[in-house]
Design goal:
The protein has 170 residues and is an alpha/beta fold. It is built from seven helices and six strands; from the N terminus they run H-E-H-E-H-E-H-E-H-E-H-E-H. The strands form two sheets. Strands 1-2-3 form a three-stranded parallel sheet. Helix 1 packs parallel to helix 2. 44% of the residues are buried.
């Protein structure tokens, strides 16, 4: 999960690409919102490196995915068209993941974060990328709510992914 905007810097793009390569190296299935920007780049990079990339679309079909939501189709191996709109798509996406990773992210990612937190998911925040990934700790400390979820924070994509996977595989 994360920013549908382009990366704010080359450094963030490189960190995102490193995360994509770690996902592929571990032969994991990547689920995204089949969106634009940084997440599109991560999905495309992971797919090119051999990961299976499943996009979860807010649209009811490919036409709506492209025309109504303005989303690409070139980064995914397959796209599931939900027809639920952006917020409904977020519920399907988050609930389908074992680990929910955040890279940067804005309001849509904040919605995904709160769903993951409420659902008790294992959450990883790639810090140093901005947005939700950097603000999540402050948000959780300020707006406390009991949850069974575990949140991991790291600037290193490999270490973050390793910590999250260890939690899921316990």
């Amino acid at each position: 999960m994360g920013s549908a905007e382009e990366a704010a810097s080359t450094a963030i793009s490189e960190i995102a690409r490193a995360l994509a390569l770690e996902i592929a190296r571990r032969d994991l299935i990547l689920l995204t919102g089949a969106t634009t920007g940084l997440i599109h780049s991560i999905g495309k990079s992971a797919r090119e490196a051999g990961a299976f990339h499943l996009g979860i679309s807010p649209g009811a079909n490919e036409r709506e995915h492209i025309e109504r939501f303005g989303l690409p189709t070139d980064a995914c191996d397959a796209i599931l068209y939900t027809g639920f709109g952006l917020k409904g798509r977020n519920v399907v996406l988050v609930r389908s993941c074992d680990v929910v990773l955040f890279v940067a992210g804005s309001i849509g990612s904040l919605n995904e974060f709160t769903i993951a937190y409420d659902e008790g998911k294992t959450i990883g925040c790639l810090t140093g990328t901005g947005g939700v990934a950097d603000e999540a700790k402050r948000i959780v400390e300020t707006l406390r709510k009991p949850t069974t979820g575990r949140i991991f924070y790291d600037q290193d994509p490999a270490k973050l992914l390793e910590a999250c996977l260890a939690e899921v595989n316990e």
